[in-house]
Write a structure and sequence with these properties.
Strand content: under 5%
Order of helices and strands: EHHHEHHHHHH
Strand order of the largest sheet: 1-2
Number of helices: 9
Radius of gyration: 27 Å
Distance between the termini: 33 Å
Largest sheet: 2 strands, antiparallel
């Protein structure tokens, strides 16, 4: 039902942005003028040091895992999820809720498996909904923390770029007696602002936005799981359950599901007539 794949769009966007920026610099002058290690240390190192102040140690440790998740897309198919619930609903109506225990080991979604286990254990619908919604809120909170790390980093990087610029200007002003050092000094001072703006607007803030979109998609999918689990417990007709869960699908996904259903129906008719 779920699989991970590399998010090509994220990688392509970052790569394209870098190519355009570096290409424009190359066409307009000297690339070496835009490389300054102390400026990079101030912008990246300083902003990361500020993250250590802003967040706790366990949250900072999550940065590497969060970064990995930003480049990996966990794909969930609402159509497959609906088919799974229809099959489970049919089995539950035919053999009883306890028969679903045999299917738990085959489920790759712990949230779904836990929900069905609550149904098998005979808990009340309101209790099941409350437990699953609390777990869903906890997942959304963890996701928001990942977004906050990158958003905070995106706000700190330009600030430390400005700090680097101020340091460079102070050093430049201390050599006003040597006009030959003013131009190069000003260039180096502005490089830190360039680094901060580039990192914030090409990397940190867009990654926070990507994580937010994925979080919304996962929360919507898990909300559909909650409704499906409660529908199975209530003994809802599988056809009604299917239509109810279609509300969580986008118009494009509904069109695709209808196309596949029509194709399967036509194939069954051909098989019956053969």
């Amino acid at each position: 039902m779920q699989q991970q794949r590399m998010d090509v769009l994220t990688i392509a966007g970052i790569a394209l942005g870098l190519i355009l920026v570096v290409g424009s610099i190359y066409m307009g002058g000297d690339l070496i003028a835009f490389w300054d290690l102390p400026s990079l240390m101030i912008t990246v190192g300083g902003s990361f040091a500020a993250l250590l102040v802003n967040f706790q140690i366990p949250q900072i440790k999550m940065v590497f895992q969060i970064t990995k998740n930003a480049f990996m897309d966990e794909v969930g198919d609402i159509g497959e999820l609906i088919q799974l619930f229809v099959r489970l609903g049919q089995k539950a109506r035919r053999e009883g809720l306890l028969s679903l225990e045999d299917d738990l080991a085959d489920l790759d979604d712990p949230f779904l498996a836990n929900g069905l286990q609550l149904v098998i254990d005979g808990l009340e619908p309101d209790t099941i909904r409350n437990i699953m919604e609390i777990e869903l809120d906890s997942i959304a909170t963890r996701h928001k923390l990942g977004q906050d790390v990158f958003r905070t980093w995106g706000s700190l990087a330009p600030a430390f770029g400005m700090i680097g610029t101020l340091i460079g200007l102070i050093k430049m002003l201390s050599h006003l007696d040597d006009p030959s050092k003013i131009g190069p000094g000003m260039a180096v001072a502005l490089v830190t602002t360039f680094y901060g703006a580039l990192l914030a607007n090409l990397l940190f803030i867009p990654l926070a936005g990507k994580l937010a979109i994925r979080s919304d998609a996962e929360v919507a999918m898990k909300s559909a799981v909650i409704e499906g689990v409660l529908a199975i417990q209530a003994g809802t007709n599988p056809r009604v359950l299917q239509e109810k869960m279609k509300a969580f699908a986008s118009p494009q996904e509904r069109t695709e599901m209808e196309r596949l259903a029509e194709k399967e129906s036509n194939e069954e008719m051909v098989y019956d007539n053969a």
